[in-house]
Design goal:
Layout lengths: L1 E7 L2 E7 L16 E5 H7 L7 E5 L8 H13 L7 E6 L1 H13 L5 E6 L2 H7 L4 E6 L2 E8 L4 E4 L9 H18 L1 H15 L3 H21 L14 H11 L3 H19 L4 H13 L10 H9 L4 E2 L2 E9 L2 E8 H8 L7
Parallel strand pairs: 2-9, 3-4, 3-5, 5-6, 6-9
Antiparallel strand pairs: 1-2, 7-8, 10-11, 11-12
Helix pairs in contact: 4-5, 4-7, 5-6, 5-7, 5-9, 6-7, 8-9, 8-11, 9-10, 11-12
The chain binds nicotinamide-adenine-dinucleotide and zinc ion.
Nicotinamide-adenine-dinucleotide binds next to helix 1, helix 3, helix 4, strand 7 and strand 8.
Length: about 350
């Protein structure tokens, strides 16, 4: 096991990479804890949970709402949880985001920790102290910044994930390599198949490095003023593609990264050779680089993105593999490059 410590304004968080769910009780002190989990995770893993009150929520982005938060508050009142209670979210990004929000607000905040059970939650959602729920059709509109006391990342839990969930996590890992860690990118080029096979040593290395990178970026900029924007690499187009095509987040971000890399060759000094390496690695990790939709629809969705500034967008570009910068680019400049990545326009 490797332990990484994140020091944020809201507290210190220990990320335990390679710790087993079976050992969770070691991190529970004092009162009987309250576990928040979802139905899938409960069905698969509740036999490994320590003695606790268990609150089970549904699955899918639609349940990440204040209505669900209210049902959880009701249960907390029923079981007489108080400000000495420890809340543990065991699940993917949805459970962690919601459990973190509940723990940050119930009785003005109680202690909490996570067991991240998806690759995305391990490399992305559980690091950075953001939590919250969707509201009025907007993603993550209501939330707080608050660090969990611990995040346990058990690689064995990833074995039961569907392929789409592996893709979601893998895309963020590639993103971390591209914006901040050329060595991890090169490691992925060498070890892509072992990563896809979820080989524990390989995945541990990738999770640990991803956590380190995200934590470093977040530490420099906890409230998203500038540096943290780099974590949006591939996400400007990614979100637009996700919305228009209905593709999964990881797949859409993968295409977004391929597009942003192509723009980087024109605008930020990335070499054609590096672009080719990126376009080669993504498919090796079962991640797409082309989308099926009308480019105009993507540009339209991009125009509605909240990261927009007038007729321009804040766009994360690469100077080279392992180094990113944020630039403001006019929407119309992005339009023509998009056609190169569309298979049916
Ligand atoms: N807070 C942040 O910084 C941050 C960052 C990125 C994403 N997010 C949020 O994370 C959410 C997405 O997270 P996610 O992709 O983990 O989705 P998720 O939590 O919906 O999990 C995906 C699916 O996998 C199932 N699952 C979870 N663990 C499993 C396991 N070990 N085996 C089999 N199935 C399992 C879940 O029940 C669910 O059906 C989004 O709501 C997003 O906004 C937050
Ligand atoms: Zn993402």
């Amino acid at each position: 096991m490797k332990i990484f410590t994140v020091k944020g304004a809201a507290g210190t968080s220990r990320i335990l990479v390679g710790e087993r769910l079976q050992n969770l009780s070691r991190y529970v002190s004092g009162k009987r804890p309250v576990i928040i989990t979802d139905t899938n995770v409960a069905n698969l893993y509740q036999n490994y949970f320590p003695p606790a009150d268990v609150i089970t929520i549904g699955t899918g982005e639609k349940i990440k709402t204040l209505d669900t938060v209210r049902t959880v508050y009701d249960r907390l009142v029923d079981i007489e949880a108080d400000r000495f209670s420890l809340i543990i979210g065991i699940g993917g990004g949805i459970v962690c985001d919601l459990a973190g929000y509940v723990a940050s607000t119930y009785m003005r905040g109680v202690r909490f920790g996570f067991v991240a059970t998806t690759l995305l939650a391990q490399v992305d959602a559980s690091v950075g102290g953001k939590n919250g729920v969707n509201f009025g059709g907007y993603k993550n509109l209501v939330g707080t910044f608050n660090q969990p006391e611990f995040v346990l990342c058990d690689m064995a839990l990833l074995q039961t994930l569907p392929d789409s969930e592996i893709a979601n996590g893998m895309a963020e890992i590639v993103k971390h390599g591209l914006i901040a860690d050329a060595k991890m990118f090169a490691f992925l080029e060498e070890n892509g198949q072992a990563a896809l096979a979820l080989d524990p040593t390989t995945i541990s290395y990738l999770v640990y490095n991803s956590v380190t990178i995200k934590a470093a970026v977040v530490n420099r900029d906890e409230t998203e003023q500038g540096e943290r924007r780099k974590l949006n690499f591939g996400h400007t187009f990614g979100h637009a593609i996700e919305k228009v095509t209905g593709m999964g987040h990881g797949e859409a971000v993968s295409i977004g990264m391929a597009i942003a890399s192509a723009v980087s060759v024109a605008r930020s000094g990335l070499t054609a050779d590096e672009l080719n390496r990126i376009k080669r690695l993504l498919p090796e990790l079962n991640l797409p680089t082309r989308f099926r939709a009308d480019s105009a629809d993507i540009i339209d969705a991009l125009g509605k993105d909240k990261k927009r500034a007038g007729d321009s967008v804040h766009f994360v570009l690469l100077n080279r593999i392992g180094r990113a910068e944020v630039k403001t680019l006019p929407l119309k400049e992005l339009k023509h490059i998009l056609n190169e990545f569309s298979t049916s326009s």
